[in-house]
């Protein structure tokens, strides 16, 4: 094989590799997920809720951009509650009692929370590096930090009690 043919093959291989990389990059960018956001006024009212006498307010949120294209599912007592992407939150109004929140990504992480009426609780789902995709950690957060972080997020869902309280019904 002469050197001209060898150079042409190298150039063609280089072009093929670049094409594959560009197609892969486009595919990754188009796979970036997002959840359907609720209207900004509803989100603002959900953030501003101070307390509900007979219910506990539970905010579940995700702020980190790590693994941003990976949906992190959240279950409440083994029932799918929501899917969170970066800068999203979900609001539950719950009766006093004990509840298990489960984050689902490459792994499952559970947190048990005992809630009291008239109080607010914040649970952050934190992405971590995984083997194939992002992993998750469910972490309780104090009220001050939770309010600050939720204030930077957009609302993606409300449980039925929260819908009634905010007078916004999801179809």
Can you tell me the overall shape? elongated
- What is the arithmetic mean of pLDDT? 86
Instruction: State the strand order across the main sheet.
Output: 8-7-1-4-9
The run of helices and strands is: HHEEEEEEEEHEH
Helical stretch count? 4
Q: What fraction, in percent, of the residue positions are helical?
A: 25-40%
Low-confidence stretches: 21-32
- Tell me the structural class: alpha+beta
Rg, nearest Å: 22 Å
Strand content: 35-45%
Please report the distance between the alpha carbons of the first and last residues. 68 Å
* Sheet with the most strands, sense and barrel status: 5 strands, mixed
What is the number of beta strands? 9
Concise structural overview:
The model is unreliable at 21-32 (pLDDT under 50).
What do you see in this structure?
The chain has helices at 3-30, 40-48, 143-150, 160-166, and strands spanning 56-62, 72-76, 79-84, 88-94, 97-104, 108-115, 120-128, 135-141, 154-158. It is an alpha+beta fold and 171 residues long. It is elongated, with a radius of gyration of 22 Å. Residues 21-32 have low confidence and may be disordered.
What's the helix and strand layout?
Blueprint: H1 3-30, H2 40-48, E1 56-62, E2 72-76, E3 79-84, E4 88-94, E5 97-104, E6 108-115, E7 120-128, E8 135-141, H3 143-150, E9 154-158, H4 160-166
Parallel strand pairs: 1-7, 4-9
Antiparallel strand pairs: 1-4, 2-3, 2-5, 5-6, 7-8
Structural features:
alpha+beta
């Amino acid at each position: 094989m002469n050197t001209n043919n060898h150079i042409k093959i190298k150039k063609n291989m280089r072009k093929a590799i670049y094409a594959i990389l560009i197609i892969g990059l486009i595919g990754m960018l188009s796979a970036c997920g997002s959840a359907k956001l609720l209207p900004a006024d509803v989100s603002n009212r959900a953030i501003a809720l101070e307390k509900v006498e007979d219910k506990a307010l539970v905010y579940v949120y995700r702020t980190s951009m790590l693994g941003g294209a990976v949906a992190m599912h959240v279950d409440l007592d083994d029932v799918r509650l929501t899917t969170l992407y970066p800068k999203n939150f979900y609001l539950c109004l719950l009766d006093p009692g004990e509840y298990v929140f489960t984050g689902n990504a490459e792994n499952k992480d559970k947190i048990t929370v005992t809630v009291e009426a008239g109080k607010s609780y914040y649970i952050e789902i934190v992405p971590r590096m995984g083997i194939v995709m992002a992993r998750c950690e469910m972490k309780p957060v104090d009220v001050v930090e939770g309010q600050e972080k939720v204030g930077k997020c957009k609302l993606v869902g409300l449980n039925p009690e929260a819908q009634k309280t905010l007078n916004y019904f999801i179809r």
